[in-house]
Each structure stands twice: as structure tokens, then as C-alpha cells.
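User: Good morning. I'm curious how iron/sulfur cluster would be positioned relative to this chain. Could you predict the structure with it bound?
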Amino acid sequence: MKKVKKFIHRKTLIYKTGVEYGDYTLNHVLGCSHGCLYPCYAYLQKKRFHSVDNYEDWCEPALVENTLELLDKELPKYKSKIEILHLCFTTDPFMYQYQEIQALTLSIIEKVNMAGVRCRVLTKGVLPFELASFSRSNEYGITLVSTSESFRKRIEPGAAPWKKRVDALYALHKNGSKTWVSIEPYPTPNIQRQNLQELLKTINFVDRIIFGRMNYSKAVSEYEGYKQFFHEKALEVIDFCKRESIQFHIKEGTMMDQCE
Ligand code: SF4
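Assistant: Good morning! Here's the predicted structure, ligand included:
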């Protein structure tokens, strides 16, 4: 287990996000020990606006120490407006091996559900089984862009091993929770040569799949025919989801007719 070494104080917490499938969100941690090298859009933004100094600073998470007080203050104001509260957009709510972050995230979800608001969770950590006893209208998701541990160690160095993520998600599914997977940012073969069908088969139990291309990477644009590649992979996802009766969403800019 790892200890949180940095703490920060914030003035506000809940906000509406402009992200494609987002509604309201909150980020109760600054930084993320998963240290993804796709690169991570949240890291690029926080560095640009000087919230973190460098990659090492980003990978040392800072907990928002007044999170629960802010929630108590803001939930009455926002609860009627929120369709679903997303955890999180600029950090990971179940950062791998950080017990304090996990405990705070569980307290947040409990408070939010008690206010009658459901949560949508996304992590590259391990979803704790306690979530099974929370509101059945919550949605629990993992990001999974590869079923290669060598890819995970190279590109998502601090994240949980991919199999642990899937096993935890499956346990929640078996217990009746709604589950989903974000296959984003999907890599081109010059970054990782892999079989998408194998990945899809490992998650055929989920309720929803979101698929999106890798962005902000020089390697992607260096791959000849990358637009066609992402288009074909999106079609594979759509075909698989239709066959398995899984809901799906293809992120903007992933298919060619969306790019033009
Ligand atoms: S898990 Fe998400 S927030 Fe954390 S480094 Fe990776 S992409 Fe960024």
C-alpha cells in the first residue's frame, strides 16, 4: 500500500463538464499515480496551467482535504440538476494501492447516493467489492485499452494490472451492478500490436462499451492509414456489441465520417 503525502484545500468541488459523455463531475485528488504516457490529457492541462510542476509531481497525488465539507455544501445546490455524477475526469478515484483515496471515494459515493444522485465511476485501479452494496443505479467502469501486461507496464506504469481490473469489474457485475468499459485511447499497431477481438471477449459481460481513438500522440499520426485503422476498429466494436446486446458509444473523431 502507498501513502498520500500531499494535501490541498479547494474552494469548490462539483462542476459541469463539457466532455462528450459527461454531466457533472468532481475531482477530489490533484495528480494521478497511474502516470499514463499516452499522454494523459489531464496531466498536459494541469502542467500547462501550472497546477503541477512536472511528471513526477503529477504522479504524487494530492488529496483535497476538505472534500466532504465541500460536498455537504454543494450537493443541496446541485442535486436537482445532476443527471449522473462522474468520478473523475482529471484524476483516478480508485488509484491503485492508495487506501486513503479509495476510502474517500467510497465516502463521496455514499454521500452522493444519499442525496438521491447516482454516480458513474471510471478507474484504472481495482474497483472495491463494497460498491456492490451501494445504489444499483450507479455505473462502475474500468479503462482497458490492452490485455498486454507489457503494454500496461510501459504506457500505464502505475495502474493496476489489467486482469485485476477486469476481475473486480466482473465481481460487481455478478453481484448485479451496472458495469461498463472505456476502450480509450485505443493505440495504433506501431504502439501496440494486438487483437481487439481478444480484448472484447474478456469484457463481454458489461452493459456498455465506449470506444475512442488515441489522440495527442505523434506515434499515431506516424502510422500510415491511422484514420482508416480507427474506423475499422470502431466497426468491429459496433459489430461485437450488437451481437452481444451491449450498449455502445463511439467517441467523436474515431470514425472517418465523424472526422471529415
Ligand atoms: S489514469 Fe487517467 S488521470 Fe490517471 S494518469 Fe492515466 S489517463 Fe491520467
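DSSP finds ten helices and eleven strands in the chain. The longest strand covers residues 178-186.
Let me know if you'd like a different ligand tried.
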